[in-house]
Amino acid sequence: MRYGYFDNKNREYVIDRVNTPVPWTNYIGVNDICAVLSQTADGYVFYQSPQYHRITRFRPNAPISRPGHYVYLRDDDTGEYWSISWQPVGKDLTKAKYECRHGLSYSKYRCDYQDISASQTVFIPLNEPVELWDVVLKNNGTRPRRLSVYSYLEFSFHQIDMDNQNFQMSLYASGSSYADGIIEYDLYYEELGYQWFTSSFEPDGFDCLRDSFLGAYRDESNPVAVEKGECSGSFEKTGNHCAVLQKKLVLQPGEDVRLTFLLGEGKREAAVSVRKKYSDPANVDKAFSDLAAFWEEKLGKLQVGTPNQGMNTSLNIWNLYQSEVNILFSRFASFVEVGGRTGLGFRDTSQDAMTIASSNPEKCRKRIVELCRGLTQQGYGLHLFQPEWFDPKLRGKQQSFKSPTVVPTPSREEMIHSIKDACSDDALWLIAAISEYIKETGEVSLLDETVTYADGGEDTVYQHMMRILDFSDKQVGATGICKGLRADWNDCLNLGGGESAMVSFLHYWAIRHFLDLSRFIGKTEETEKYEKMAAKVKKACNDNLWDGEWYIRGITANGRKIGTHNDQEGKVHIESNTWAVFSGVADPDRAVKAMDSVDKYLYTKYGLMLNAPSYTKSDDEIGFVTRVYPGVKENGSIFSHPNPWAWCAEATLGRGDRAMKFYNALLPYNQNDEIEVRQSEPYSYCQFVMGKDHTAFGRARHPFMTGSGGWAYFAATRYLLGVRPDFDCLIVDPCIPKDWSGFDVTRVWRGAAYQIHVENPSGVSKGVKTIELDGKAVSGGIPVQKAGTQHRVKVVMG
What we know:
This protein is of the alpha+beta class. It folds into 4 domains: 11-296, Distorted Sandwich (Beta-galactosidase, Chain A, domain 5); 343-526, Glycosyltransferase, CATH 1.50.10; 545-715, Glycosyltransferase (Alpha/alpha barrel), CATH 1.50.10.10; 723-797, Sandwich (Maltose phosphorylase, domain 3). The strands form 11 sheets. Strands 1-2-8-9-10-11-18-15-14-13 form a 10-stranded antiparallel sheet, covered by helices on one side. Helix 8 packs antiparallel against helix 9, helix 11 (428-441) runs parallel beside helix 13 and helix 15 (574-582) runs antiparallel to helix 16 (588-602). The model is unreliable at 396-405 (pLDDT under 50). Residues 11-281 form the Glycosyl hydrolase 94 supersandwich domain.
């Protein structure tokens, strides 16, 4: 069953059946202010932090997601009313036509009902803390229409925990007022706790109190003010507050009108100039075109043309967009993670920074520095922390609720977790993030930048990298395999004092990244030490982790191996086997056997399961994973994040057909006509898909906020299509299906543009016979070219 389609020309996903099985969300905003909105305009907006500076209220996990950012229309002759987005009024879909277009940092809602066509485009200008609702109405009938237009949103107390729990504070420390066409929302306990809402027109009515606008025993679907056709002019200190502005219109046949609603940060005075600016439709159009140009520049860094249309749509638009949303907003703003916690997850943010350095090097660099500050002197990272804790600009200043960007600062003891709280994989990801950033930008000087540690002291970024590698070298068990500590990426596989196969493979991979970097910059004094370390790790892995057909997952604190041929449950795990191959630990024979086992035991038509068979018997020696329902999340689901690791592993083996088989299975695009199964968005990778041991096999959950997006982009572009930067050249080394005759890639690298055309006359999966740069043969990689220049690259496989 299909609920929408991909409009690649406009870079939109068009939802023409708006009653989707679950909300289909989008992210609005690219800087300080951000909104998460669904296909029915439900959702919320926040400023910098969804936990500490929520602006509008949202009730999660409800039968109908509400409230949102709504526009009501009322026929003042008949009294009938509806909303431009299908919800909250919810008109009969056989009598009214609704559509939502989710675009890049905007959503557009359209409605045709009783000869009135209406649209509401919600977006946030690039560099202003204001959300715009661009509303257009047109009378398509033959008679004049008297209409009333009403905005609606519900304000939230900034501190989300107080908003949800502490009504003694939130209800009695918030107020609202109206003057000169502007609603002001005031949080009394916060010196700068103000928002405003206004419009491009002079209102004919207003309401600031939610309960007055909605009425007793009503909700957003049937507000009493809209039903009556008149607002009550309500406002008050204390209570629940909303932003309703009413405008009465008369539209002649064929006439249209354009209105703008604005939601912004600050006191009423701040709204005056912004209101004046966006009362001119030309300025609204300019802000929208600037937003489009912002994304055009990002997407233009890498565009592909392959025989796989789903891959083209994903890589050219949606996969990068999802990855950018993650690096911009971390993981804690969605309809699932609704702001109850915020900050940077060390492992998540490291991988986000690694995977999209091409489109957002500035943000990736910022994240790398923040992560270095979140590293302890011992070499492990704080699993979750606020960058503000270690920002030199804020250090030593007394923080209070006076700042709109405030994040309460814990004590030094609270900040610096003991090693018992450390996750063994966290910091290792940062090694590759730094390496990939330098490959992309050439900014070797980053390594010499001095950055503090979380627990005091400072060092260069390069020294931070060595601390990370040395920490994992010391934290090993009896067999020389890295300890699992609190967790090792799989948070539910709590090996504790046991040993993690995945982390040892990851350690080896990180050492290889570091060695390549140290050789490139001539730091040969470290080379010998880390070459010996790498050899030791590789030997320990191959001596202790091979089980005959695949690599085991780990060793418990009591010395029991898990993920062996003797196990009835959790026999084969994706993490250890893909990383054994991708890291380079496995020799060719073992690598082939390991990935054959992944295909045999873990493959499904919706992607690769995390482990199989699922655990059904609780076993605390292994961890909480054995208490998760079979086929759900960490216990036998199709966990999306590690799926691209399998694509990379198969690409290193040169098996393009299988790599593409795995890629296509997980690709959301390919489930667009199976929404009765998938349910979730077909334009976003989801955290997981229910595995075959669950009755809802194929159902996807938790879109957008997952490392799956970044890894899918990284794996597909750099290992399947094989276009990836090195420190001093651009490598083209594809691994594709044998029946592909070729493909094209446009890649901007260090300011130069490369039009890469790949031909596959011999029908191979891997292997490059010749490379030409501007008609001249080159060997190895493509040398760095002058910024601002354009070049043609021809690659013949064979």
